[in-house]
Write a structure and sequence with these properties.
The protein starts with a strand and ends with a helix. The relative contact order is 0.11. The protein has a seven-stranded parallel beta sheet, sandwiched between helices. A hairpin with a 4-residue loop joins strand 10 and strand 11. The longest helix has 25 residues. About 50% of the residues lie in helices and about 15% in strands. With about 400 residues, the protein is α/β, with parallel strands linked by helices. It binds nicotinamide-adenine-dinucleotide and magnesium ion. Nicotinamide-adenine-dinucleotide (NAD) binds next to helix 1, strand 2, helix 6 and helix 10.
Length: about 400
């Protein structure tokens, strides 16, 4: 299978290439795309004998070229080169750039008709309907990589959609599941980055601590499983072993379980419709003993409710929510705002963009980018205001 990986140096990208390196006879790697870090990208390209490595940061181009000199692997840099790499003919594109930055390359890949293994959930949150319409128009199948959606994809019976009572996404609850508001008010980036179960990129790890990640995932699920969009719910499951469940009208509940290792859902996509063996550890249920579940605490984790409210107001609001959240998370990681400020800033941006009449349903990619940029500007202002008031 010919495969390109967008976000090749990230957590999902590295897990994907790990599986590729273990089964080199199955894959021919075409393009690897990274944001920066040319050395790491060059190493990854050499390890899987990619045809071309592309770095989005144009300034990193010379370093990438030098690192690949004499290897026969081509290199390129800059946004146009990223788009060109994303549209090289392949069977599958792993879309694992983080944030709205992944939208344009992932959309370009979908327009070639390649199967898209979609990890980049922000792409759906900020332009899901447009993205999925374009993918369908060009015959590009979209397979969900996100563990919860992958789980549901595995247990959702297409012939019984009318008999689905509820789709349940599990949430670990993150590192602050049992913390008080006072404790969370003082939480540092280092504390928020210590996810109890999953090892992931920084942005999604902070989203997991605020539960915004689960909110983004409810939006993602509503787009991936539109027939049951009004029946999606969240349950906290601190062990992160059950990833998603579907409850049917006959009283059956089907679930997918596995170790919290993204190589399982990634392999499901890479091998689809067959299954592919992975080195992921197997579950020893007797040793695990207990699985627990609890309702999410929406008062302590307001981001979940903000995302679900944005979903009810549809795509324009989720686009603004996503842009504001990306800015707020970056500001928190830089130590400029507090942990609880993230959700406050998102809420402020939604209120202000609504008051400014910005929350229209975007009907073109340009409109998505304009709304995203407007929300980011409002979020920047909010960050400044909040940061100025901090002790
Ligand atoms: P990460 O931060 O570890 O990696 C992001 C990758 O994107 C890196 O290769 C980076 O260089 C690249 N990148 C960033 N900006 C870019 C740009 N402008 N142009 C090109 N490349 C750029 O992130 P991650 O944890 O691997 O997550 C990737 C995506 O997958 C996110 O959307 C995340 O929500 C989703 N996801 C991740 C996990 C996980 O376990 N890590 C699970 C589910 C979903
Ligand atoms: Mg997930």
């Amino acid at each position: 299978m010919r495969l390109s990986v967008l976000g090749a140096t990230g957590s999902i990208g590295r897990s994907t290439l790990d599986l590729v390196a273990r089964a080199p006879e199955r894959f021919q790697v075409v393009a690897l795309v990274g944001g920066s870090r040319p050395q790491e990208l060059a190493e990854a390209a050499k390890a899987v004998r990619a045809e071309i490595a592309v770095v989005a940061d144009a300034a990193a181009g010379p370093a990438l070229r030098d690192a690949l000199a004499g290897t026969g692997i081509a290199s390129a840099a800059g946004e146009a080169a990223v788009l060109e790499a994303a549209t090289r003919p392949v069977d599958m594109v792993m879309a694992a750039i983080t944030g709205a930055a992944g939208l344009a390359p992932t959309l370009a890949a979908a327009r070639t008709g390649s199967t898209i293994a979609l990890a980049n959930k922000e792409c759906l949150v900020c332009a899901g309907e447009l993205f999925l319409q374009e993918a369908a128009r060009h015959g590009a199948r979209v397979l969900p990589v996100d563990s919860e959606h992958n789980a549901i994809y595995q247990v959702l019976e297409q012939r019984n959609l009318a008999m689905v009572d509820t789709i349940l996404l599990t949430a670990s609850g993150g590192p602050f599941r049992t913390w008080t508001m006072e404790e969370m008010e003082r939480a540092t980036a280092a504390q928020a980055l210590k996810h109890p179960n999953w090892s992931m990129g920084a942005k999604i790890t902070i989203d997991s601590a605020t539960l915004m990640n689960k909110g983004l995932e409810v939006i993602e699920a509503s787009l991936l499983f539109p027939e049951v969009a009004d029946r999606i719910d969240v349950v906290v499951h601190p062990q992160s072993l059950v990833h998603g469940l579907v409850a049917y009208a006959d009283g059956s509940m089907l679930a997918q379980l596995g170790k919290p290792d993204m190589r399982t859902p990634i392999a499901y996509c890479l091998g689809w419709p067959e299954r592919m063996a992975t080195p992921v550890g197997r579950l020893d249920l007797a040793a695990i003993g207990t699985l627990t579940f609890e309702a999410p605490d929406r008062a302590r984790f307001p981001a979940l409710g903000l995302a679900m409210a944005a979903l009810r107001r549809r795509q324009g609001t989720t686009t603004a929510l996503n842009g504001a959240n990306e800015v707020a998370v970056a500001a928190f990681l830089e130590g400029r705002i507090g942990f609880l400020d993230i959700a406050r800033i998102v809420e402020t941006v939604i209120e202000r963009s609504d008051a400014l009449g910005m929350l229209q349903e975007p009907t073109s990619l340009e409109a998505v980018f304009a709304l995203d940029a407007g929300a980011r500007r409002l979020a920047d202002e909010s960050v400044h205001t909040v940061a100025a008031l901090r002790p």
